[in-house]
């Protein structure tokens, strides 16, 4: 069974642990290579048996499943960890994901759901319920880009305004942006009109108040 997915099952309840092993080990493509009754033992067994996927209970003695997940993934980042939960507690599952788990399984999940979850994690995917999708997206997504000042201006006009606020004259701006002086003058006229500014000094003050002109 050299091409089988090697599994470590960690749970402090022997009935559940052994029952899950008895469910998965006979299936083609799966091999339960180790079992653990607490988090510390799971870390040791993972080092010794080098499983592909660890099915990890959260609440265990000695070391909890989240800390054990962190230790296992730190040692072997390629290992896929599925945490076991009684429900869909957001805080627990998100903590597990931050520790390096790739998803969760509900205790009592059907056999086909368990098989799909293990196979998905082994293939590099993630597994989580729909109810957590939005929360997980918030955690994993990059921070939203801040809205740029003066959204009524085009990107080019904002670039020119930034240089104006930095104290550049028209000739310097034209040279830096590889534009003609006439193009710069036209853009400045548009900026003044859009911002309803009285003169260049007025627009500089407003631009600096908005955080522009600080590139240097």
| CATH fold node name of the largest domain | Rossmann fold
Q: How would you spell out the order of helices and strands?
A: EHEHEHEHEHHHHHH
Given helix and strand content, the structural type is alpha/beta
Low-confidence blocks of residues: none
Side-by-side strand order of the widest sheet:
2-1-3-4-5
What shape does the CA trace take? Answer: rod-shaped
CATH hierarchy, class of the largest domain: Alpha Beta
Number of DSSP strand runs? 5
Over the alpha carbons, how many angstroms does the gyration radius reach?
29 Å
Write down the domain tally: 2
Strand content: 5-15%
Sheet of most strands:
5 strands, parallel
Average pLDDT works out at 87
So, the CATH homologous superfamily of the largest domain? Answer: Response regulator
- Report the end-to-end length measured between terminal Cα atoms: 63 Å
Helices, by number, come to 10
What is the CATH architecture assignment of the largest domain?
Answer: 3-Layer(aba) Sandwich
Helix content: 40-55%
Task: Describe the model.
With 216 residues, the protein is α/β, with parallel strands linked by helices. The chain has two domains: 5-140, Response regulator (Rossmann fold), CATH 3.40.50; 155-209, Orthogonal Bundle (Arc Repressor Mutant, subunit A), CATH 1.10.10. Helix content is 50%, strand content 13%. It is built from ten helices and five strands. The mean pLDDT is 87.
């Amino acid at each position: 069974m050299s091409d089988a997915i090697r599994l470590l099952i960690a749970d402090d309840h022997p009935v559940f642990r052994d029952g899950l092993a008895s469910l998965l080990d006979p299936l083609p493509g799966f091999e339960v290579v180790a079992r653990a009754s607490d988090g510390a033992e799971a870390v040791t067994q993972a080092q010794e048996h080098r499983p592909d996927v660890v099915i990890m209970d959260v609440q265990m003695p000695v070391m909890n499943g989240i800390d054990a997940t962190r230790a296992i993934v730190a040692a072997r980042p390629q290992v896929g960890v599925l945490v076991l939960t009684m429900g869909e507690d957001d805080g627990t599952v998100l903590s597990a994901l931050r520790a390096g788990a790739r998803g969760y399984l509900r205790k009592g999940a059907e056999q086909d759901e368990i098989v799909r979850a293990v196979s998905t994690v082994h293939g590099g995917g993630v597994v989580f319920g729909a109810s957590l999708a939005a929360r997980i997206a918030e955690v994993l997504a990059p921070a939203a880009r801040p809205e740029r000042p003066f959204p009524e201006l085009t990107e080019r006009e904002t670039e020119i305004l930034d240089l104006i606020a930095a104290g550049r004259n028209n000739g310097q701006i034209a040279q830096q942006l590889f534009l003609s002086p006439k193009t710069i003058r036209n853009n400045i006229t548009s900026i003044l009109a859009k911002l309803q500014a009285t003169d260049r000094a007025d627009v500089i003050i407003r631009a600096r108040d908005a955080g522009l002109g600080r590139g240097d």
